[in-house]
Specification:
The structure holds 3 protein chains of 3 kinds. By secondary structure, chain A is of the alpha/beta class. Chain A contains 9 helices and 10 strands. The relative contact order of chain A is 0.17. Chain C is globular. In chain C, a hairpin with a 2-residue loop joins strand 9 and strand 10. Classes of the chains: A alpha/beta, B alpha/beta, C alpha/beta.
Chain lengths: 243, 368, 306
């Protein structure tokens, strides 16, 4: 993790009619950081992620993602990020290899490059035998892990993970986080949301959104200290209940 | 009963709260009638005709004058013999040739039937039909007016011949076809989608575990659509009648009753589809391909069944809209009563029974 | 024989090649909260669908309140309140209309059973004219629960009611369940969140259609057979990868801000320290820790792993 900000958000406001989904958000995310983006349902997380990914425009505010302006350069942003959502995002009726080819192709990787990286990936995860299996036939845990691998296949600068581990068994959940750590070590910035509070502890820094505002932003240890809490669960409850 | 009424109420909420459903229910039928009425129907204006007058008397001249002055037709040439008919059609833009038999006025005077021949270029079947209908109407009008003045009724018999498409018999009329299409769309597609939606949203699970009986769920789903489809049927008939001058020669009550029968048939089809389809998308897909396209293509709505390959003709016997269109045409255009459509009515009823039977058999009280 | 509310005997169900349920048997006592804990695809939903008579088992039998779920499905449907995995609400109906609808189809009215749902419904009543689709996750959950309760069921079957719901709403939800228990309602609830297990009277841990263990939460934790230590170090990733190479460790899993290491022998503490020091990790914070349900679950999962 460096001190070079890769996501800069200054006074982000997003309104839907009279409803303020994001109320003057200010934060930076640094290169190589694992940034936990927490909040209750409806607190405005998804709205903010959509804006950061260049899928929707903010009402006002200055935002830079991977060095690009979200208003004018959303195409460049999309090239430099990866995205995986809580709903699994690989095609069920394609094989692993076909999925990778398809997604890598979107990002303009050459055939040769795709093959080299695919071999690396299969080797690292010890899943050479899954190469020609339909994704639909794999267990959920594997699907999630593979979706993540595909999301970072084009070596983006940032990867957005929207509740990536929902419903996954505890061992797979931890394997998933091992992969996140590995990616972060390789220099990919991780922007992740989760409802599992123990996972919040795995992040370098955590922001907690309540009703469209960021109420707290610090390292898990810092937050626990500040709120006199034993764990992140308590921190979260204190913040969210206060509203 | 209260359970059931609560269910029906909920269905109405669904319909009236979804702008898209409302649009499909009320916007599309009107739009479709107007589109078919104005666009698909070729406008009749300055159609070039040729006349072979073998009699050249006052009456033929008067009729010719009347036809030309109607504004729909334009006399391209006067013919001297019938030898070149085909060539005239092929070379010129003449769309119709009118032939008066020799001694036309004389025959009328002797209280005999005078014959006219209307030969139309039926390569464009729809237009040909329209042209012939217009011409016949003008002649009919003339006859009617003359008859008021004469003691002996005047008898002119226009004989229609279509060239290039001799077998063309079906009268192109968009209202019955559109009606079949729309009732199919509203009834079958909307019910199947609304049931599939419950499956998709997971609410079907709750309905199944509730004490509601399957029949209550089905009938509750169907009732709102019966009433809405019926309103649609009335709208279409009214539009056809007031805007396009489509006659209703037969009994209006019979017409409505037959429409209701067809609506119920379409609804039973919709339920059958929903027992197969688990998603709204699937329901829509099946409705479109299994119902809409055959309705448009194989029911004789647009393409005359007589001109189809034998296999397709065979398949067309399985298309419920075919019978409905026959019934509607009979009632509206020919003004016939139930005696002439009982066979078709019976077929529709039988089909409905089969669909309902299959639906009940397929409707699962459990998942999977 | 104790008074069981739910009795499940040797239930099996397969979907094609997948064994969703593999010879599952357990009993649920009257008016207890019984938790079925396991990840997605472990068979929870299939089991619940069999209980609510939506699915037929391939073999085995189950009764609820003495009624067979296959033969007496009509009665089963009267006495159960069911909340499927997704909140089965009509999003185009308002809060009140949803509730009224579910009341009518069960042949009752909101008024008649208002007492039962009062505590829950009162929290969403200010929004009763809002469409259900516009509610937040927590409020949808409360409405769905109210709808499942409106006909005063004897057994409440809740399939992952807290999935995808934030920590606050989850906590509130469990408080509501506790209150319902006192109204003589048997509650069987499934969840992928292991921390919720401690809130149940009994839990069954389920994985790949098989029951790993059925116990009170306390007993499950007591049954953990290895000495367990909690270790923390600034570079957690390094600590974790190092511990995984330790031959005395049965498992090493990240847990919040520390790592839980299960050891083979009780004398492990010193050995761990010296091993880590050998590997260049000095001054680790190390203390024994009581296993939680998630530790137990992972341990049991490892035992049955193929």
């Amino acid at each position: 993790m460096t001190d070079k900000p890769i996501i800069k958000v200054v006074n982000l406001v997003k309104k839907f009619g009279n409803f303020v989904a994001n109320d003057h958000l200010n934060f930076n995310v640094y290169e190589g950081e694992i940034f936990g983006f927490l909040g209750a349902n409806g607190a405005g997380k998804t709205t903010a992620i959509r804006i950061l990914c260049g899928l929707s425009h903010p009402t006002s505010g200055e935002l830079e993602v991977a060095g690009f302006d979200v208003y004018k350069q959303s195409e460049q942003i999309k090239k430099n990020i990866g995205y995986m959502s809580q709903k699994f995002s690989l095609y069920e009726n394609l094989t692993l290899r076909e999925n990778i080819r398809f997604y890598a192709g979107i990002y303009g990787l050459s055939k040769k490059e795709i093959n080299i990286r695919m071999d690396n990936l299969l080797e690292n995860l010890h899943i050479g035998h899954l190469r020609d299996q339909l994704i639909g036939s794999l267990p959920l845990g594997w699907k999630q892990k593979l979706a993540f691998s595909v999301a970072i296949f084009h070596q983006p600068k940032i990867v957005f993970l929207d509740e990536p581990t929902g419903g996954v068994d505890p061992i797979t959940r931890r394997q998933f986080w091992d992969m996140i750590y590995q990616a972060a070590k390789d220099g990919i910035t991780i922007f992740v949301t989760t409802h599992y509070m123990d996972e919040a502890e795995y992040c370098d820094r955590v922001s907690i959104m309540v009703d469209g505002r960021i109420e707290a932003l610090d390292s898990p240890a810092g937050l626990k200290q500040h709120y006199h809490a034993e764990n992140m669960d308590e921190v979260f409850l204190k913040l969210a209940r206060a509203s | 009963m209260k359970k059931f009424l609560g269910f029906v109420k909920k269905e109405f909420y669904h319909i009236f709260r979804d702008p898209r459903t409302l649009l499909v229910l009320f916007g599309i039928p009107i739009a479709q009638v107007l589109i078919f009425g104005y666009v698909v129907t070729t406008e009749i204006k300055n159609i070039r005709i040729a006349i072979l007058d073998q009699s050249k008397d006052d009456v033929t001249r008067e009729i010719t004058q009347k036809i030309i002055s109607s504004g729909y037709f334009e006399l391209q040439q006067n013919l001297e013999s019938s030898e070149y008919f085909e060539d005239i059609f092929k070379t010129g833009d003449v769309k119709e040739i009118i032939v008066f038999e020799p001694d036309f006025a004389k025959k009328l005077g002797k209280n005999e039937t005078a014959k006219m021949q209307l030969i139309a270029d039926a390569s464009d079947a729809n237009t040909a039909n329209l042209i012939v209908n217009y011409t016949s109407a003008i002649i009919g009008d003339y006859v009617q007016k003359e008859n008021k003045l004469l003691n002996i009724p005047m008898q002119i018999k226009p004989v229609v011949r279509m060239v290039f498409n001799e077998k063309l018999k079906s009268v192109y009329m968009f209202v019955p076809g559109t009606m079949a299409l729309i009732l199919m769309l509203v009834s079958a597609m909307m019910t199947s989608i609304s049931i599939a939606r419950e499956k998709e949203m997971g609410t079907m699970e709750i309905l199944l575990v509730s004490p509601l009986k399957p029949a209550q769920i089905i009938i509750g789903k169907v009732i709102p659509y019966v009433s809405l489809a019926f309103i649609n049927a009335i709208t279409i008939i009214a539009l056809g009648y007031f805007v396009f001058g489509m006659p209703i020669n037969g009994s209006l009550t019979l017409l409505m009753a037959e429409s209701l029968l067809f609506i119920c048939l379409a609804l039973s089809l919709g339920i059958l589809i929903s027992t197969i389809a688990n998603t709204q998308q699937m329901a829509m897909f099946i409705s479109l391909f299994a119902l809409m396209l055959p309705t448009i293509l194989l029911s004789g709505f647009i393409f005359p069944i007589e001109n189809m390959p034998v296999i397709l003709q065979g398949i067309s016997y399985l298309m419920p809209p075919k019978y409905f269109i026959i019934i509607i045409k009979n009632i509206m255009l020919k003004g016939t009563g139930f005696i002439f459509v009982w066979k078709e009515t019976l077929i529709l009823m039988a089909m409905m029974m089969v669909f309902i039977g299959l639906s009940v058999k397929n409707f699962k009280i459990r998942l999977q | 024989m104790p008074d069981f509310s739910i009795d499940i005997q040797n239930l099996s169900k397969t979907f094609g090649p997948v064994k969703a349920l593999d010879d599952v048997s357990f009993q649920v006592e009257k008016s207890e909260i019984f938790g079925l804990i396991g990840p997605d695809g472990s068979g929870k939903t299939s089991l619940f669908r069999i209980l609510t008579s939506l699915l037929l088992p391939d073999s085995g039998m189950a009764t609820m309140e003495g009624y067979d779920v296959v033969k007496s499905y009509k009665i089963i449907r009267q006495i159960t309140g069911y909340m499927p995995g997704r909140f089965s609400l009509y999003y185009d109906l308002t809060v009140e209309e949803n509730l009224a609808f579910f009341a009518t189809i069960f042949g009752t009215t909101i008024k008649e059973n208002y007492d039962l749902i009062k505590d829950i419904y009162i929290q969403i009543e200010p929004f009763k004219n809002r469409r259900a689709g516009n509610l937040s996750g927590g409020m949808k959950q409360k409405l769905a629960l109210s709808c499942a309760l409106i006909h005063k069921p004897k057994v409440l079957v809740l399939d992952e009611p807290t999935t995808g719901v934030d920590a606050v709403s989850r906590k509130e939800f469990w408080e509501m369940l506790k209150k319902l228990k006192q109204q003589d309602i048997t509650i069987i609830v499934s969840t992928p969140y292991m921390d919720e297990a401690s809130l149940c009277d009994h839990v069954a841990l389920i994985q790949k259609g098989k029951i790993l263990s059925i116990e009170t939460p306390a007993n499950i934790r007591n049954a953990f057979s290895h000495p367990l230590y909690k270790i923390a170090y600034p570079d957690m990733y390094r600590l974790l990868t190092t511990l995984r190479t330790f031959s005395e460790a049965v498992s090493a899993h990240r847990f919040g801000d520390s790592i839980h290491v299960a050891l083979k022998t009780r004398t492990g503490e010193k050995e761990v320290r010296s091993f880590l020091e050998e590997q260049g990790l000095k001054d680790v914070a190390l203390e024994p820790v009581r296993p939680n349900i998630e530790d137990c679950f992972m341990d049991l999962m490892n035992d049955t792993h193929d």
